[in-house]
Write a structure and sequence with these properties.
The chain has 190 residues and is α/β, with parallel strands linked by helices. 35% of the residues lie in helices and 22% in strands. Helix 4 packs across helix 5. The longest helix is centred in the middle third of the chain and has 16 residues. The N and C termini lie close together (9 Å).
């Protein structure tokens, strides 16, 4: 793979998404950040503001998402738009990378959890770095399996996750472990 052909899809929010974007920029990888009018984001590179019609394409039943995620989502227009923009991130990526926390019910904590669940539904390769456990996990189709630090293998990939990025999560994004260093492609972990 050539880094010139790769595209990171994200949301540009502070924390994991901003770090994925900064790393992509550092490596010369194109970046697309899906957002909507009035949403406060950190990354402006590759900004893609979704209009009302595009947001409707990513609309989901909040009742369905709440049942799937074993938690309640507010019906506020902002939350709906956040979930709709996450739909674009996951839909565009061929592999999904998430920084966050895997909960006991096998979902991922926070709004990021919807992205992980949608990736599961789409049967996309899904990797989560659990900051509390300080380890990478891959979704097997039925459970989370701890794995070595993954290496991106698809040109179109999604990087998303928590706004509360810790140092180990930042290192997970940059691929700073010795294992990743040995396995790097010529253009970095990506």
């Amino acid at each position: 793979m050539k880094k010139e052909d790769a595209i990171l899809f994200s949301g540009g929010i502070k924390g994991a998404e901003a770090e994925f974007g900064a790393n992509a920029e550092r490596l010369g990888i194109e970046e697309v950040n899906f957002t909507f009018e009035g949403h406060n984001i950190d990354r402006r590179r590759g900004l893609r503001v979704l209009n009302h019609e595009e947001l409707k394409n990513g609309d989901v039943s909040l009742e369905y998402v709440s049942k799937l995620m074993n938690r309640s989502y507010t019906t506020s227009p902002t939350i709906r738009k956040v979930l709709q923009s996450i739909w674009y991130q996951i839909n565009k990526g061929q592999e999904i990378y998430v920084i966050g926390e895997i909960l006991a019910d096998k979902t991922v904590k926070g709004g990021t959890g919807w992205g992980a669940e949608f990736a599961k539904l789409c049967n996309k390769p899904l990797f989560v770095f659990d900051q509390k456990r300080n380890a990478w996990f891959k979704w097997s189709g039925s459970d989370w399996v701890e794995c070595k630090e993954p290496v991106i293998t698809h040109l179109h990939f999604t990087g998303t996750g928590t706004r509360f990025l810790e140092e180990n999560g930042k290192k997970a994004i940059t691929g700073s472990s010795s294992e990743a260093s040995r396995n790097r492609a010529s253009w970095g972990r990506w």
